[in-house]
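> agent: user asked for a holo structure of the chain below bound to flavin-adenine dinucleotide. Plan: (1) validate sequence alphabet, (2) canonicalize SMILES, (3) run complex prediction with ligand conditioning, (4) return tokens. Step 1... ok. Step 2... ok. Step 3 dispatched.
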Amino acid sequence: MEVAIMGAGISGLSCAITLEKNGVTPTIFEKRKSVGDRFVNAESLFSILNRPIQDSISYVAENFHIKLSPITEVDKIFLHSKNQVGSVNGKIGYTNIRGRHANSFENQLAKQVKSKINFNSTDEYKDICKKFDYVVLATGDAEYAVKLNNYRYDLRCAVKGVTVKGEFIKSNPHVWFNYEILPKGYGWLIPFSKEEAHLVIVYTDSTSEIDQIWDKFFSLVCKSLDQDLKITDDFQIKNYMVGICNESKIDNTYFIGNCFGAISPGFGFGQFASILTGVYSAYDICGLESYEELVKPLFENYNHSIVFRRFLEQLTDKQIDFYVDKLNNKIIDKVVGTVSSKNNGIDFLRLATPIMKLVNDYKQIESR
Ligand SMILES: Cc1cc2nc3c(=O)[nH]c(=O)nc-3n(C[C@H](O)[C@H](O)[C@H](O)COP(=O)(O)OP(=O)(O)OC[C@H]3O[C@@H](n4cnc5c(N)ncnc54)[C@H](O)[C@@H]3O)c2cc1C
């Protein structure tokens, strides 16, 4: 059986590891010169958003024998709104490194792959298709899914990020919601260490000028943290598209990772779903389980998450202030503690979706 994987990112490499464990050696095509050859950034895996799974890192280790080592466990997140600061405490999840770093997730995965990776690949899908029994599209974007008329876009985002030097608590990321500065968007800071962190903004209003928005946001962050942060590296993505494929598999082509629609529109989390789609596509190729069946919950999660995003977008700064203020409450920590505990699988997003949908529909009628 000849299997091609296009893209040696987290979904493609997870697929390769699983194929190899089941006796299949894939041919991997990677357009860059090495694994993760792009900007270094810090990302997070919030297990609380992957219900009913309790701990994403242990889950992939125990169930798929894929070993990933994070930067640290997150025990507190600070939320900053226009006039309030709140925090959530508990076993929230993990932070991890991505990109051109020896300990990035993609480099950790590459060490678990035995098959050869063909770097600097310029091979096109249509040519690969003719030579292989199965093609797994893991290119990290929707380009091929769009070409195959198999993709629905829901958001077009502007993204800008920097690496900063300062003083941080490694296990405490920060998130900012301030629509006056970041229209319908948010910013976050994830520490790599006590001295270095990654700071990013994402917003959906593409008419606003990113550099002006960035300058205002950066001043806000320095003020919030009471620090004079020093920028050491930066990156920008003008059109980061968030959407989902219509079909997870067409003939012998599998759509995985961002090609599938792994990114949740709510907060932009896509790593865990990328790993799952990689593993699940390999199961299907090996005749173990059906890809279409396995990814059904991921389609559902995406749909809950788009409702959540629309809910967030219709809030005002005043309403966000109200919710953030309410976070400073021991009851919230108790709720997080209960939700994070090993013996329950409460999925808040799923439970809250009907209410958020009602609010969204009402707001739409009101604005007509
Ligand atoms: C700034 C930013 C912050 C994020 N933060 C988070 C976060 O905190 N938590 C979270 O869960 N998710 C986060 N995400 C989303 C997450 O990173 C993605 O969902 C995930 O990396 C997608 O994995 P993938 O395998 O689809 O793509 P990638 O891991 O990007 O891999 C795609 C690979 O395909 C290669 N490739 C591209 N085109 C071709 C081609 N034609 N032929 C061969 N190879 C090709 C690329 O070079 C790359 O190596 C973030 C994304 C961004 C941009």
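> agent: step 4 complete. Summary for user: Residues 6-12, 29-32, 41, 43-45, 106, 121, 138-140, 159, 161, 200, 237, 240, 257-258, 262-263, 268-272, 274 surround flavin-adenine dinucleotide (CB under 6 Å). The chain has a mean pLDDT of 91.
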